[in-house]
Design brief:
mainly beta; 3-stranded antiparallel sheet; 2 helices
């Protein structure tokens, strides 16, 4: 047995699916950040939670407008995912580097090259140590044709998700098979 530093305990819960969170302020200035601390918390109503540090520009924008987009990238977007997770929107207009499209029910753009998207409004927020948990109600969800099956499960033969290991390390699934 090897002792793990308590400061690194979150890494024992990885890999995690990485999403790109998009948000805008009231003036329409938008931002994006990569996030792996995201998960479903309710099926009915459909709620997800994303943990965001109050130090992040995305936190400021979500707090202001109470809405955000969840964009699910594939492994071919890894450089962009790492960029969104390591450069501040206060320094650069990160979304100028991608094609976007208008969301159906929120005033936040979504990233065109992703394979799935969720449109969310904030139902609740909970302070949790150095992060805030934004609980979002999913208003709309869609994916590229052929990337999910009739049950909404990803086609693992086609989709190679970005899985965050910690820091700037990522992986994906290879030679995946469905296990009964």
């Amino acid at each position: 047995m090897e002792l793990v530093k308590v400061s690194k305990v979150t890494r024992l819960l990885h890999p995690k699916l990485t999403a790109i969170i998009t948000s805008c302020n009231r003036e329409g200035k938008c931002n994006a950040m990569s996030a792996a601390w995201i998960m479903p918390v309710s099926a009915n109503p459909p709620l997800i939670v994303v943990a965001i540090s109050p130090k992040r520009l995305t936190y400021t924008y979500i707090k202001e407008t109470r809405e955000f987009g969840v964009n699910i990238p594939s492994m071919n977007m890894l450089k962009l995912v790492n960029y969104f997770g390591s450069v501040s929107g206060r320094v650069e207009d990160k979304l100028s580097k991608v094609k976007m499209f208008k969301a159906k029910r929120i005033n936040v753009p979504l990233i065109a090259d992703c394979i799935a998207w969720l449109e969310c409004i904030v139902e609740n927020e909970i302070e949790a140590g150095d992060h805030v948990l934004f609980i979002g109600r999913v208003l709309e969800a869609y994916a590229l044709k052929g990337y999910i099956d009739e049950d909404g499960i990803y086609n693992v033969y086609k989709f190679k998700p970005v899985l965050h290991l910690g820091g700037d390390k990522y992986t994906t699934i290879e030679n995946a098979k469905y296990v009964p």
